[in-house]
Amino acid sequence: MQVTGVILAGGKSRRMGRDKAFLPFGTGLLIERVIEVVQQVTADVILITNTPERYQRFGLPMFSDVIAEAGSLGGIYTGLVSAKTPYSLCLACDMPFVKPTFLRFLCGTAAEADVVIPRNAEDFQPLCAVYSQVCRDPIRHKIEVGQLKITGFFDQVRVRVIDGDLLARDDPHNIMFFNANTPEEYTKAQHMFEEQH
What we know:
alpha/beta; Spore Coat Polysaccharide Biosynthesis Protein SpsA, Chain A; globular
């Protein structure tokens, strides 16, 4: 597998009021759930965090932002710079419903484009997507000019969109990209998880 799993744990968690990565979820923590899923897809997993001391317990290689204050786009850039593989599967640390089968499908499609990204009814899901090393320079340029919207560089690279039936196959109930940004969403996510298990 020529893909590094890049887990983005650098968010400020402002709306949650505490670090959402460490919220209890299932039998462990929210981030542990995501790590477990990504490790079912690739053995090469790294964490992007600016507080590595908090994440040491997971025993994963950790990297801090190469460019400060560049948001999620900066996290993806750091992942690409830090990865030693042609492709990086970038995933937010608060997406507990992403399925290994879907992530394997994304990774299996990686060579077809520079970005392989799901799009559901809401929008693109750039924090559950595969990026190739080709994306590094276009992303860096966007960061340097202060344009931090993740999809902002897509017009400069080859993008493969996964939607419709290809997405519904693994996500029939449209919950795979549900993330817990607020206490209310976290409670909802816990209920959804309990219903599934």
